[in-house]
Amino acid sequence: MTEINIYNPSELGKPMGQYTHVTRVKANEFLFISGMLAGDAAGNIVGEGDFDAQTTQVFKNIEAALRSAGASWKNVVQFTTYLVHSQDIPNFMNFRLREFPKMFPDGKYPPNTLLMVDRLVKEPFLVEVQTIAAL
């Protein structure tokens, strides 16, 4: 039986965005999803030059990977996000403010580490998100 407890220790203060500081997990199995990019099933880049369109596709791809293992957003225990442009941080935060309440209706948002990188595997990609889920 999987037990996921997502919480914020009071000593750490309030998170600076749509995430939580800690996830404690008791699980039989973990699902490690490689960094998802804004590509479709045919290998085409979705939303070239459009950060919001790319981010939307990235999370659609994560959802498809979760479903392939019989999982959903409720199984996610951690994200690692890679952005190419620091100017897109507010866009990423706005995406999460808009979409995470739908994905995580209990308001327990998984921990997320946000990193800036020089570039991703192909120049047009603006965002990549790696995911860990507990089953």
Return residue spans where pLDDT drops below 50 for at least 5 consecutive residues. Answer: none
Count of DSSP helices? 2
Shape designation:
globular
What percentage of residues falls in helices of 4 or more residues? 10-25%
Could you tell me the CATH topology label: 60s Ribosomal Protein L30, Chain: A
CATH architecture: 2-Layer Sandwich
Give a verbal description of the structure.
The chain has 135 residues and is an alpha+beta fold. The chain has helices at 51-68, 89-103; strands at 3-7, 22-26, 30-36, 76-83, 112-116, 127-134. The chain has a single domain, classed as 60s Ribosomal Protein L30, Chain: A (2-Layer Sandwich), CATH 3.30.1330.40. A four-stranded mixed β-sheet has the order 3-6-4-5. A two-stranded antiparallel ribbon has the order 1-2.
Short description:
The protein is of the alpha+beta class. The protein has 2 helices and 6 strands.
Key phrases:
135 residues; alpha+beta; 60s Ribosomal Protein L30, Chain: A; 2 helices; 24% helix
Secondary structure layout:
Layout: E1 3-7, E2 22-26, E3 30-36, H1 51-68, E4 76-83, H2 89-103, E5 112-116, E6 127-134
